[in-house]
């Protein structure tokens, strides 16, 4: 599997993501600076967590206008797998590659803790390694993870089986306790929790491993 | 008046700069003339207590600072210690007390930013932050506002920069009502052959300014940090700097990228006293001079004077001496990261700092006397009165053992700090292998099986009751916490927070604490490699409890042998290493249950401490223990309750018949003790190892069930303990 991690000014979980991808695939992912405008042939494009542009305007809003995003949209349109975690998810919604928006947490505070999630669908290259309905523990670390979408949009996500992960309990005010969603083509995943920080026993959970393993299995 | 005009310096101007008339005379002697305003400003910050350590310097020399594993002791931006495999750990702790009281969010945020710069300045990637926080009484009208601002500020900065905040302390006492303490510690990892220092060298080498632009914020921050608070301090809000963690993140990445090349001669962050201290310190340590053209300094505001440029404490700025000819290479890196880059001067061999602006020389000062010849005071000291020991409880205690245990579990100093650390990203980088809430945080060294154990410790009530014993205890507790997670303690940093040193009683506290700490460091082979002093922590004449915070760093060679405090399951035998005599003086039981702040603190016997600690270290190394916890605030009962809560399993404790006072045995705070959980088949072996080592190992109970049974008292269910333990901070912060 040929994977690339896109780094924006202010990305900060690219190290964690690279480590998890390398452990699953045996290859170090390519590191791509956001000012690039072309990507080589890839199987996976990954947008890491962090605070791109300091979250100063609106999380992900400035990064979504980076030169690389046009290329990512083109590749996603061709069916290349794209994963955006935390700030990466925010960037994907701001870029219009995923619907909805991530608002400030309902409790208004930053939240960093392990949370229990439910795998809501296994129909994707990201989640095929889980059982449907399986409970997994990933940590969250975000201030703006309150997934918001209008009723019609939410219905569409549910009807099309595009909710990938759901919080087991109320966490941050997200509509339908949604923690992660898929694009209509099912090749773009955005999620707030951090599977990349749940891949080793020392990290307290290995529940994130199947996600990277599914990718490695599906994308070769 | 122009800034280079010396005629307008009046005694009032001198006093406003926090300089005494004697100090002003000394300045005139050094210069052979009166200084102009720019020069006076430079002297005032360089000779401030904050930058010059003029009250503490002669006593700081008492700290042991050397060991075979110490690469760099005090005197640089941070201490450097060898951790094997060609790597070093770089760390330091620093205060941001005064700014955090005036403007808690920005004060705490810039405290975190400042200490991170001290670490990456030396070529180290910051990997962890810890914060030692001391607030006033929970019910004091300002406390909630201060907690909420400080916690949001630490989180807002650290989370964005992507350095995990993994530990620290948070305690409360009325003496901090008008003067909170915010001490931040940062820890980084570097390659041993890629450590950078602040020594300007090479005549003609360019002096380069990078990072954020200079504004008017923070002018005279160092001077403010060196004065007592009064009711008018609020008016000093403009002297608090404003942090920009996004720029800091870019600065870290740009500096580390540049450091990977062979371009840098010297590098120094612009911290307290900004451009002034960074340029003077680099020239002084290199024995050189520097000429700077202030017209080249990137400015955020128009019309800034030389005085303002030199004294600004705008954040996220660095000064670098480059190897000549490498400017373009360096500029390209900073442009990539969208940061300012300006050549502002060059290194000279004159030993003088010459500053030009608008074609005119606005300051011309000899470097060495400004940085090195600040006055050093041997201030008079007065010892604290000796207090009497208090053993056990005489007469009827105000509440029974069960109630007392719950009261302590929910008391501000012991209660869970989850509300706070869940607002900090303590997991970013994926190497946090022991999270907040244990004895010490553990951060894996990226790509290895090694871990760094990190802790901050101090018990201000002990330091107030007996500064010498309290000083020893702060170091001993840090050492013990590192032992408890399976680490080899390496070295400490410290941040000494005290009141006004011009008062002999306070100066006596400072000196005795330093001497106690130094003694403990010597006996425990735990040298001091960096530190910071914060004096004048008083409001309207009311001093804080003396608080010499210790930041300890240890190394775990193989994380497979790391230990934690959680009881691992049913049927484990609980052992205590060390003995209880019932010492309740200066304990939390005395304060929270008896309602009295009385008595001498538990004495520290360093030989005993070391013997017990090395014994436990040996057991962990040989894989004989399943859980370890040190005994500290609230004594044995709280130690076991914390082990139960962490493991989600109950325990039964036998109170020995020979205990003179059950309260003393259960809640006494004797030092040098540990609780161990071991498999039953290991008990005989551990006892005989204890006999051989001359260490007392006593079987005190067993794990199991879903409640804590203390002797014959009514059991306390895990649920009730958890509810009480978790309630304090959320209740306080949600109170209307």
UniProtKB/TrEMBL annotation, chain A:
GO terms for molecular function: ATP binding; glutaminase activity; phosphoribosylformylglycinamidine synthase activity. Its EC number is 6.3.5.3, 3.5.1.2. Its main location: cytoplasm. InterPro entries: Class_I_gatase-like (IPR029062), PRibForGlyAmidine_synth_PurQ (IPR010075). The keyword ATP-binding applies. Keywords: ATP-binding, Cytoplasm, Glutamine amidotransferase, Hydrolase, Ligase, Nucleotide-binding, Purine biosynthesis. It comes from the Bacteria. The active site is at 86 (nucleophile), 194, 196. It catalyses: N(2)-formyl-N(1)-(5-phospho-beta-D-ribosyl)glycinamide + L-glutamine + ATP + H2O = 2-formamido-N(1)-(5-O-phospho-beta-D-ribosyl)acetamidine + L-glutamate + ADP + phosphate + H(+); L-glutamine + H2O = L-glutamate + NH4(+). It is found in: Cytoplasm. One of its GO terms (cellular component) is cytoplasm. Pfam families: GATase_5. CDD domains: GATase1_FGAR_AT (cd01740). Pathway: Purine metabolism; IMP biosynthesis via de novo pathway; 5-amino-1-(5-phospho-D-ribosyl)imidazole from N(2)-formyl-N(1)-(5-phospho-D-ribosyl)glycinamide: step 1/2. GO terms for biological process: 'de novo' IMP biosynthetic process. PANTHER family: PHOSPHORIBOSYLFORMYLGLYCINAMIDINE SYNTHASE SUBUNIT PURQ (PTHR47552:SF1). Part of the phosphoribosylformylglycinamidine synthase complex involved in the purines biosynthetic pathway. Catalyzes the ATP-dependent conversion of formylglycinamide ribonucleotide (FGAR) and glutamine to yield formylglycinamidine ribonucleotide (FGAM) and glutamate. The FGAM synthase complex is composed of three subunits. PurQ produces an ammonia molecule by converting glutamine to glutamate. PurL transfers the ammonia molecule to FGAR to form FGAM in an ATP-dependent manner. Part of the FGAM synthase complex composed of 1 PurL, 1 PurQ and 2 PurS subunits. This is Phosphoribosylformylglycinamidine synthase subunit PurQ. It comes from Arboricoccus pini.
TrEMBL record, chain B:
Pathway: Purine metabolism; IMP biosynthesis via de novo pathway; 5-amino-1-(5-phospho-D-ribosyl)imidazole from N(2)-formyl-N(1)-(5-phospho-D-ribosyl)glycinamide: step 1/2. Mg(2+) 2 binds at residues 118, 269. CDD domains: PurL_repeat1 (cd02203), PurL_repeat2 (cd02204). Mg(2+) 1 binds at residues 94, 532. The keyword Nucleus does not apply. Its EC number is 6.3.5.3. This is Phosphoribosylformylglycinamidine synthase subunit PurL. It comes from Arboricoccus pini. The gene is purL.
């Amino acid at each position: 599997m040929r994977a690339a991690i896109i780094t924006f000014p202010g990305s900060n979980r690219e190290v964690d993501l690279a480590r998890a991808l390398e452990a699953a695939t045996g290859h170090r992912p390519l590191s791509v600076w956001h000012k690039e405008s072309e990507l080589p042939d890839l199987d996976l494009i990954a947008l890491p967590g962090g605070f791109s542009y300091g979250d100063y305007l609106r999380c992900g809003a400035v990064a979504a206008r980076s030169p690389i995003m046009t290329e990512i949209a083109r590749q996603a349109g061709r069916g290349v797998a794209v994963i955006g975690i935390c700030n990466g998810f925010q960037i994907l919604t701001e870029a219009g590659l995923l619907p909805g928006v991530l608002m400030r947490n309902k409790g208004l505070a930053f939240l960093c803790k392990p949370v229990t999630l439910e795998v809501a669908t296994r129909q994707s290259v990201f989640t095929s390694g889980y059982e449907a309905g399986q409970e997994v523990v990933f940590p969250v670390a975000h201030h703006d993870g309150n997934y918001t979408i209008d009723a019609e949009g939410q219905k569409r996500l549910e009807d099309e089986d595009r909710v990938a992960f759901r919080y087991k309990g109320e966490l941050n005010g997200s509509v339908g306790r949604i923690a992660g969603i898929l694009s209509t083509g099912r090749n773009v995943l955005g999620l707030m929790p951090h599977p990349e920080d749940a891949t080793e026993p020392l990290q307290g959970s290995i529940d994130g491993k199947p996600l990277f393993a599914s990718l490695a299995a599906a994308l070769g | 008046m122009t800034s280079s005009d010396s005629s307008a310096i009046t005694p009032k101007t001198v006093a406003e700069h926090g300089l005494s008339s004697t100090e002003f005379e000394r300045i005139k002697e050094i210069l052979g003339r009166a200084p102009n305003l720019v020069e006076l400003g430079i002297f005032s910050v360089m000779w401030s207590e904050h930058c010059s350590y003029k009250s503490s310097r002669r006593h700081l020399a008492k700290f042991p600072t050397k060991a075979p594993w110490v690469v760099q002791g005090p005197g640089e931006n941070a201490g450097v210690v060898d951790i094997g495999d060609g790597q070093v750990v770089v760390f330091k702790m620093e205060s941001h007390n005064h700014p955090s009281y005036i403007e808690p969010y920005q004060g705490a945020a810039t405290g975190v930013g400042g200490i991170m710069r001290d670490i990456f300045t030396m070529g180290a990637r910051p990997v962890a932050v810890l914060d030692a926080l001391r607030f006033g009484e929970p019910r004091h009208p300002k406390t909630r506002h201060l907690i909420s601002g400080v916690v949001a500020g630490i989180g807002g900065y650290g989370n964005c920069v992507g350095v995990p905040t993994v530990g620290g302390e948070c305690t409360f006492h009325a003496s901090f009502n008008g003067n909170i303490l915010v001490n931040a510690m940062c820890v980084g990892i570097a390659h041993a052959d890629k450590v950078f220092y602040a020594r300007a060298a090479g005549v003609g080498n360019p002096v380069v300014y990078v990072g954020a632009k200079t504004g008017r914020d923070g002018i005279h921050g160092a001077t403010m940090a060196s004065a007592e608070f009064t009711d008018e301090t609020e008016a000093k809000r403009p002297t608090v700097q404003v942090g920009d963690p996004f720029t800091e993140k870019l600065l870290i990445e740009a500096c580390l990228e540049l450091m990977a090349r062979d371009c840098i001669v010297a590098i120094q962050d612009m911290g307290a006293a900004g451009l002034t201290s960074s340029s003077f310190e680099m020239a002084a340590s290199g024995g050189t001079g520097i000429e700077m053209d202030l017209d080249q300094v990137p400015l955020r505001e128009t019309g800034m004077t030389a005085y303002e440029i030199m004294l600004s404490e705008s954040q996220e700025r660095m000064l670098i001496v480059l190897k000549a000819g490498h400017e373009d290479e360096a500029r390209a890196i900073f442009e990539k990261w969208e940061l300012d880059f300006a050549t502002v001067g060059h290194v000279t061999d004159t030993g003088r700092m010459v500053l030009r602006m608008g074609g005119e020389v606005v300051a011309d000062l000899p470097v060495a006397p400004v940085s090195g010849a600040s006055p050093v005071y041997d201030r008079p000291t007065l010892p604290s009165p000796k207090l009497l020991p208090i053993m056990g409880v005489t007469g009827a205690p105000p509440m029974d053992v069960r109630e007392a245990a719950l009261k302590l579990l929910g008391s501000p100093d012991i209660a869970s700090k989850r509300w706070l650390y869940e607002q900090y990203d303590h997991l970013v980088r994926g190497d946090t292998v022991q999270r907040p809430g244990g004895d010490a945080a553990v951060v894996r060294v990226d790509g290895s099986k090694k871990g760094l154990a990190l802790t901050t410790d101090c018990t201000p009530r002990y330091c107030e009751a007996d500064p010498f014993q309290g000083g020893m205890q702060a170091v001993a507790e840090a050492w013990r916490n590192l032992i408890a997670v399976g680490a080899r303690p390496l070295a400490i940093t410290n941040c000494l927070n005290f009141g006004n040193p011009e008062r002999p009683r306070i100066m006596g506290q400072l000196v005795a604490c330093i001497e106690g700490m130094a003694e403990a460091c010597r006996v425990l082979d735990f040298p001091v490699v960096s530190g910071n002093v914060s004096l004048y922590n008083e409001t309207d004449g009311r001093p804080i409890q003396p608080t010499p915070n210790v930041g300890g760093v240890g190394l775990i060679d193989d994380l497979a042998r790391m230990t934690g405090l959680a009881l691992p399951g049913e049927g484990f035998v609980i052992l205590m290493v060390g003995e209880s005599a019932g010492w309740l003086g200066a304990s939390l039981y005395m304060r929270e249950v008896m309602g009295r702040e009385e008595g001498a603190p538990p004495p520290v016997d360093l030989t005993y401490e070391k013997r017990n600690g090395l014994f436990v270290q040996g057991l962990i190394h040989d894989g004989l223990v399943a859980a370890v916890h040190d005994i500290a605030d609230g004594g044995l009962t709280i130690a076991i309750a914390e082990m139960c809560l962490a493991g989600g399993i109950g325990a039964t404790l036998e109170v020995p018949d020979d205990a003179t006072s059950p309260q003393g045995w259960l809640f006494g705070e004797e030092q040098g003790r540990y609780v161990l959980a071991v498999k039953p088949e290991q008990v005989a072996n551990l006892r005989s190892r204890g006999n051989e080592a001359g260490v007392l190992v006593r079987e005190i109970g067993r794990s199991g069930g879903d409640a804590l049974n203390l002797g014959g008292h009514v059991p306390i269910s895990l649920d009730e303990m958890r509810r009480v333990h978790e309630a304090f901070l959320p209740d306080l912060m949600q109170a209307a």
